[in-house]
Amino acid sequence: MRIGLDGKILSLRVGGTGRYAINLTREILDEAAASRPDHEFVVFTGPRSDPDVVAELGRRCETHRLTAGSSVIRSLTQVPRAIRRLGIDVFHGMDHVGIPFTGRDARYVVTVHDVIPLILPETFTPRHRLVVRAALARVRRRADRVLVPSEAVKRDLVERASVNEGLVVVTPEACDRRFRPVGAEAVRAVAARHDLPERYVLAVGTLEPRKNLTRLLEAFALLLGRRRIAPDYRLVLVGARGWLEGPIFRAVKDLELEGHVLFTGFVADEDLPAVYTGASLFVFPSLHEGFGLPLLEAMACGAPVVASNVSSLPEVAGSAAVLVDPHDVEALAGAITGVLEDDARRERLVAAGLARADEFSWRRTARQTLDVYSSLA
Questions:
Q1: Rounded CA gap, 125 and 116, in Å?
Q2: Sheet hosting strand 322-324, strand order edge to edge
Q3: In what order do the strands lie in the sheet with 168-170?
Q4: What would the pLDDT profile of 289-344 be if each residue is shown by its tens digit?
Q5: CB under 8 A, 24+ apart: contacts of 100-108
Q6: CB 161 within 8 A of CB 143
């Protein structure tokens, strides 16, 4: 079997989907080398693919560069032609726009990470909503199998996008192996590099409306105003700017939180484990997630976690996090102080989080994904 893997998002700067593509591709190649030597792989790279990752993969399998920066052009013309020319039997699009528009020279597998634009349309731009709707219609018509990271996304995909439930397979995400607690010296070095304070509450994610950061800012302001949190605590927000992020920065000003909030921008994976480890608390107040990888990363690095009680997050966190209504600022504030003020509770959450993170494995996900490919032979 010759399998084509869509590598256009092989970059950590793409966010969670990039992490998924990199980790899954690496583990698929490792697992196939050990247990399925009759499989051949071709990774279809693109302009956004990280050159170092492409070079690494190129030493282990065939790579084929597609030049189109536009996902539409790529899926409309370049991918179908390459599938035919390279004799691909199964093609795996690593995100919802990866499935080809035309051609039936291969069986198609596609990963849908979430359908949040159908659920919270007001948190996305009109153009983004249009692209997602069109892509999901293509998935519904042309996919032979659809991979999703959680049971929550499976439900959403069936109910909101009318995808045949029998085609949908849950293959959970996991942490990169580097996400583990690090020593105090490493924490200090990374803190100095990013100008992090000694004590901080941490949130990680692209700055966009569905991450619910304005309510987190309101909760933090509430705690400061009531003196329920020490004045030397800072709220550290890690993540690149996304879209419709203006209200987040306005909230900092309106709530008079200048000097209390630090925006770091994008932080590379080399530094993120130390950022998680150094946090007094990790808060993930998102309104909706397909999986919620930062939550799992924080647990794997020994940070206690407060998270939303919606979508996939209870499924991922299990009993290892404090779960709250993301719309309730008072509840969010109470959960934050409830962990920060109770050392024994923090220790229980840290231990439970480490154990929970260990239950997820990219190797297991790779095996499940390879099984899906084999089912289409």
A1: 12
A2: 261-265, 234-238, 200-204, 281-284, 305-308, 322-324
A3: 62-65, 40-45, 2-6, 90-93, 107-111, 145-148, 168-170
A4: 999 999 999 999 999 999 999 999 999 999 999 999 999 999 999 999 999 999 99
A5: 100/75, 100/76, 100/142, 101/72, 101/75, 101/76, 101/138, 102/76, 102/77, 105/80, 106/4, 107/144, 107/145, 107/376, 108/142, 108/143, 108/144, 108/145
A6: no
Q: How many CB atoms lie within 10 A of CB 82?
A: 21
User: What phi and psi, each to the nearest 5 degrees, are found at residue 89?
Assistant: -90, -40
Residue found under tokens 């933090």: 220
Structural contact between residues 76 and 101, judged by C-beta atoms closer than 8 angstroms = yes
* CA torsion, ordered 113, 117, 123, 125, to nearest 10 deg: 110
CA dihedral (204, 206, 210, 215) positive or negative: positive
Tokens linked to 87 = 């004799």
Q: Quick check: 14 pLDDT over 80?
A: no
CATH superfamily placement of domain 2-174+361-375: Glycogen Phosphorylase B; (3.40.50.2000)
- Structural domain boundaries in the chain: 2-174+361-375, 184-357
Q: Which helix (H) or strand (E) element contains residue 236?
A: strand 234-238
d(CA 211, CA 223): 20
